[in-house]
């Protein structure tokens, strides 16, 4: 996946992957706490929000993608299967990051 992302509100960027291109725009940035951006592709207009919360053992990462309509079952199913794959890869990579 490739991106020209910058954590600046109103910055537009794209995610490019083998399954297609997603148009995004940064909606909210609170350093070390929150990142939210629009996620638009194939008629889908949702919001992805990442939240970091300090814990006694480290940091809790929460991701939420909201805004799916009832008629977007296929897109919702794709997100439900795609995000866990992303998190599996992220979990494998994190121990290697210093």
* CATH class descriptor name: Alpha Beta
Instruction: Give the H and E element order.
Output: EEEEEEH
The CATH superfamily title = START domain
What integer is the average pLDDT?
A: 89
Query: Total number of β-strand segments?
Result: 6
Q: Which fold name fills CATH's third level, the topology?
A: Alpha-D-Glucose-1,6-Bisphosphate, Chain A, domain 4
Shape: globular
Roughly how many Å apart are the termini? 22 Å
Q: Give me the Rg, rounded.
A: 14 Å
Portion of residues within helices: 10-25%
- The low-confidence parts are none
CATH architecture field: 2-Layer Sandwich
Structural class estimated from helices and strands: alpha+beta
What percent strand?
A: over 45%
Number of spatially distinct domains: 1
Brief summary:
The chain is globular. It is an alpha+beta fold. The chain has one helix and six strands; from the N terminus they run ββββββα.
How is this structure best described in words?
- The chain is α+β, with helices and mostly antiparallel strands and 98 residues long.
- The protein has one domain (2-96): START domain (Alpha-D-Glucose-1,6-Bisphosphate, Chain A, domain 4).
- The chain is 21% helix and 49% strand.
- The two termini are 22 Å apart.
- The model has no long low-confidence stretch (mean pLDDT 89).
């Amino acid at each position: 996946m490739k991106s020209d992302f910058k954590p600046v509100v109103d910055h537009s960027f794209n995610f490019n992957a083998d399954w297609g291109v997603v148009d995004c725009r940064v909606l909210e940035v609170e350093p070390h706490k929150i990142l939210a951006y629009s996620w638009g592709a194939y008629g889908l207009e949702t919001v992805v929000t990442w939240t970091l919360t300090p814990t006694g053992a480290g940091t809790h990462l929460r991701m939420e993608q909201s805004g799916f309509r009832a008629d977007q079952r296929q897109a919702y199913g794709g997100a439900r299967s795609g995000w866990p794959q992303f998190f599996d890869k992220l979990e494998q990579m994190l121990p290697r990051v210093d």
